[in-house]
Amino acid sequence: MPYLQNVCVKPNDLLKDVLERLSRNSHGLCVVVDDNNQVLGTITDGDCRRALIKGLTLVSEASQVMNTHFIAVDESFSIEQIMLIMKSNSVDQVPIVDGNRCFLDLVSTRAIQQSRSERKNPVLILAGGQGLRLRPLTSNLPKPMLRVRGRPILERLIERLTADCFRDIYISVNYLGHKIESFFGDGSKWNASIKYLREERELGTAGPLRMLEGKVDSAVLVVNGDLVTTVDFEACVDFHNKGKYDLTLGMSYHTIQIPYGVVQLDQKGKVVSVEEKPKRTYSINAGLYLIEPKLISLIPENVTFPMTGLIESAIVGGYNVGAFPIHEIWDDIGMPDHYVAAQELQID
């Protein structure tokens, strides 16, 4: 394939030639193959930089630079399988190989996204809170802009949404909102269209949604702006649609350990058991929702209104409310200990 001419290199090719090929191809990756076209490794810009820092030179061979622990996929894999593998391993492109590990093609997240249908569901990211429990970290920075493993929480969230083909994104802003707007702009850098809902006062977790009344015609994916997660947003929407829910909330799990022995009594007050320091697991609200447009009118206008209030109103009103189970990495950065722990999450 002509477009792969600048992708393949041989193990004895010089680093300077690899860099030249990287500059000419649009993938940011070269595949190292032997004379039988079997894949030996991959080389990225980052691999080249690390090699030079370690003391290799421009006349070092590709075999000294290549990553031999690369991810490759078999030609029989479906697009869905390939996307799952790339997402699970946090890579943007992978070589496709045959049964003999011979190189056939290179597939990238961007190429798959361009070939897949864009999700029609608008996204609302809630980013207007003050993050008071994280002071002084949030004294001069909105909580969603705090960095986890070197990058803003909100940027990671937007990249995961666009990887799942969600392009129409609204961000509700209030506290230091200008810093969010100046960083993301119109979203084109992230292959998204970003618009801002400016709260004159804090409107809570459901209040900003009222500003979308009459502007949306499909279920809105609402996400807290402080989430660090690898959740499959597409699967969440599919769950919502299949169940014909009016409102779906994302549900994660939290386990706590009681630091005492728990006493069980019968109806007469007699002790029947003592369970020493038991663990209890609870289903918790994960700060992720799918909400049909017809429910937006249940939200009072221009007042602080929590998402729990909307959920309760929907239940009382007889609407169909579902819970989507989240088994992937999930954490909300609401407390200092959560922020510290998030730095160790395997999300890269």
Automatic annotation (TrEMBL):
CDD domains: NTP_transferase_like_2. InterPro entries: CBS_dom, CBS_dom_sf, Mannose-1P_guanyltransferase, NTP_transferase_dom, Nucleotide-diphossugar_trans. SMART domains: CBS. Residues 1-58, 66-123 form the CBS domain. It comes from the Bacteria. Signal peptide: none annotated. Keywords: CBS domain. It holds the Pfam family CBS. The keyword Iron does not apply. This is CBS domain-containing protein.
